[in-house]
Amino acid sequence: MDDREVARIGGDEFGILCAFSKEEALEQIAALILHQLQQPINVANLHIKIGASIGYAVCSSGDSHHNPFSFRDGSAAEATFRRAEMAMHAAKAKGRSRYCRFQQEMEDKLLQRVQLEGEIADAIQERQVVPFYQPVVDMRCGRVLGFEMLARWKHPEKGLIYPDVLIPVVESTGCIGAMTYHLLRQALRDAKGWPNDVFVSINLSPLQFEDAWVAGNILAIAREASFPLSRIQVEITESALATNLEGARGIVDFLQRFGVRVALDDFGAGYAGVCYLRQFKFDSLKIDKSLVTNSVSNPEDKRIVKAIVAFSRALDIETVPEGIETAATRDLLLELGCATGQGYLFGKPQAAPQAQSYFRSEAAPLRA
User: Fold this and answer.
1) Which of 63, 98, 137, 318 is at a distance of 20 to 30 A from 364, taking alpha carbons?
2) Same domain, residue pair 146 and 88
3) pLDDT, tens only, 148-171
């Protein structure tokens, strides 16, 4: 490296601007930096280990008429740093101590997200965001016990936008509450056409536990729709509990006091689930798809699922494995003691008319 500039960008972020003759050298530099940062630092009697996530991008000589190292015009350098930062966040998303090169699709996704953030508030008002429903079934006979409500954005130009894109957009714009209440109102209208013993389950974002009125708003919407609270289930994740434990405790207690069921979602994906089971009386425990999917082929995952089922039974908590896609997985879960399940084997998320068809005599059987 004949030319280089090193700077602290802010906080614990640093940037290196360097010249090189072959692009392959950048990956070697990133790997070398990562290796050096992983070496323990000896302070007194302590051995301190740190790590880093590294993103890098290329700025060729043709990207600007100006020298990218010029202090007079840093436009090319700034663009390269911005792209490297996108790559760094992509590296973080893959796990600790990784490096990642900038790809154009990263910038395209960012631009798309900015556009969606500008449109989402109007989209909710115009009812472009709609509820889809995935069945939760009794695996012994295939009977539908309830539906989990999942948001979909029917974008007029981009088509159907799924939760992995939609939820970060509504959370970052502060629209998560408005969307949840809009979807709940529609879901309760749809659910009035279902049998009286079929529940509707809604998901709460961790951000909503900052809202002291969220539980009261759910009850008010149910009262407005004259919908039984016993047919509503609220799903929360471990991350919501970790973010605001006391707020979550108040919301859960309030909802359960009025007969709303509360489920702990994605159990097994985190590390502190058992701790929360001691502090909350959940009605249902949804076993994370990552454990369920491999339970047939992976003995360790099978043992974990078996332990979760036994532990839940001891606490009188219903277990609901998610992500069931094959008959073999269903049969194993039944053998382990799970009666209720959810997954593509029984049905994908569908719009209200398709969900309603599960209750017609001519509907296809749910069991494979």
Assistant:
1) 318
2) no
3) 999 999 999 999 999 999 999 999
